[in-house]
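Exercise 7b. C-alpha cells:
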C-alpha cells in the first residue's frame, strides 16, 4: 500500500490545479455538489483499479459523476444505517428517561438511561469502525463493476476486508491524516481553503480505495490458489 502515492498523485497531473479547483467549486452546489464529488472520487477509484495512466479525472463528463456519486452515497448510507438507527434509539431512550424523571422522585429512570446510553455508545463505536473498513471495500466493488448490487454482495465485500484488513486500515488512516492535517490549513484561507482541501481529500481517498481493492483482490486470489 503506497500511502505516499495517494498524497502526491494529483500533483503529477499538469492540470491538477484546474481539476481540483473545479471540484472545490462543484462541492458548493446545493444538495448535489457533495454527491457529484463522491462520484468524482469513485471515478478515481475505478481508474486506479484499471491502472489508468491518468488517475485524476477532468470535468468534461460532469453529468456522469452524479449517478456514480448517488450510488456511492447509497452505499455509505446503507452501511452506516445500523449505527444511525441505534443512535436514534438512544436519543428516544434519553427523552423517555427525562420525561419519566420529571414525573418521579426516583433516580432509577436516569440511571437506566445512563447505562443504556453507555452500552449504545460502545455499540455505535464498534459499528462505525466496522463501516470504516466495509465502505471502502464496497466502493471498490462498485467502482470495479459500476453496478450498485456489487457493493451489497456481502460475501465478496467482507472477503476483500478479510483478505487484507491492513489495506483498508490504511484507507481510514490516510483519509484521517488528510482531514487532520489539511482541514486547519484550509480554514486559515477565509474558509475557501476548506473547499480545496475537501476536494483534494476526496481524490486522495479515492486513490487509496482503489489501491486497497487491488491489494485485497490479489491477496484473495493468492489465498484461493494456495488452498487449491
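Sequence design result:
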Amino acid at each position: 500500500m503506497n500511502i505516499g502515492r495517494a498524497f502526491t498523485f494529483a500533483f503529477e497531473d499538469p492540470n491538477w490545479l484546474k481539476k481540483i479547483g473545479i471540484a472545490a467549486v462543484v462541492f458548493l452546489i446545493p444538495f448535489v455538489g457533495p454527491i457529484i464529488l463522491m462520484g468524482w472520487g469513485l471515478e478515481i477509484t475505478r481508474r486506479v483499479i484499471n491502472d489508468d495512466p491518468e488517475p485524476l479525472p477532468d470535468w468534461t463528463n460532469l453529468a456522469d459523476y452524479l449517478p456514480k456519486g448517488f450510488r456511492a452515497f447509497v452505499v455509505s448510507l446503507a452501511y452506516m444505517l445500523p449505527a444511525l438507527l441505534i443512535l436514534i434509539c438512544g436519543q428516544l431512550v434519553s427523552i423517555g428517561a427525562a420525561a419519566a424523571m420529571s414525573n418521579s422522585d426516583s433516580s432509577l429512570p436516569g440511571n437506566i438511561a445512563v447505562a443504556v446510553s453507555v452500552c449504545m455508545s460502545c455499540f455505535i463505536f464498534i459499528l462505525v469502525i466496522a463501516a470504516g473498513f466495509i465502505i471502502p471495500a464496497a466502493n471498490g466493488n462498485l467502482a470495479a463493476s459500476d453496478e450498485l448490487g456489487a457493493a451489497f454482495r456481502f460475501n465478496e465485500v467482507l472477503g476483500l476486508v478479510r483478505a487484507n484488513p491492513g489495506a483498508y486500515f490504511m484507507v481510514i488512516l490516510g483519509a484521517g491524516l488528510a482531514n487532520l492535517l489539511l482541514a486547519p490549513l484550509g480554514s486559515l484561507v477565509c474558509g475557501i481553503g476548506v473547499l480545496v482541501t475537501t476536494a483534494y481529500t476526496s481524490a486522495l481517498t479515492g486513490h487509496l480505495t482503489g489501491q486497497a481493492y487491488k491489494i485485497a483482490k490479489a491477496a484473495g486470489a493468492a489465498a484461493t490458489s494456495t488452498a487449491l
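Instructor comment: The CA atoms of residues 24 and 195 lie 5 Å apart. The chain has one domain: 3-227.
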